[in-house]
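Reviewers of the previous submission asked for a worked example of the structure-prediction workflow described in the proposal, so we include one complete record here. The input consisted solely of the amino acid sequence. No template or homolog information was supplied to the procedure at any stage.
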Amino acid sequence: MKTVLGVQMDKEVSELLGGSRGFVSVLKNRGTIPYAECITLAIEHNISLDWLILGRGERDMGGAAVVPIQAPHLAELPFFDAAAWGNALEGQAWYVPRHWLELQGLPPGDTIAVRVVGDAMEPALSDGQVALVNLERRTVDGVYLVRFGDSVHFRRVQHMVDGSVRLSCDNLAYASESVPAADRGQLQLIGYCHSLVKPVQ
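From that input alone, the workflow returned the following structure tokens.
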């Protein structure tokens, strides 16, 4: 990826991919391959995925036609970063089989992919992983992408009998928060965390 992008440092790759400065370092430490970013890079630079991911064959695709990633059987989901909420990552998307989305009851127009930032929800959600978030309104308890004030985070949401909402983290190093019924208007449940995308090991 550094060769393709013409840079030498991990943080430069992270910035060019639209992630936090430590994105690549986290991936390397965990032995995780950023498949979505590799596919995007291969398409944009017309290079071979075999060469990029496996290190075999020729780098350039030459005049060979690149199979469009927007194949009919794939749904294109907007790709966001929880740390920079508000705008989809420029030039990036997450592609999921339409049939699988239908089986899960996830309309493509109401589903987004969000990169997890931080360790507050570990071990359920780890920094750098991608979660599929359903934007349809739900009232059940569970893990949501929430906005409270100016901050956006993944939190475990529990609706209490007195009308308040409890926001908790799976990582016990972080304290839980309670949003009183009177302040519920400041809390936005952006979407329900339906699935965590994990690379095949």
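The longest strand covers residues 187-197. We consider this example representative of the routine output the project will generate in years two and three.
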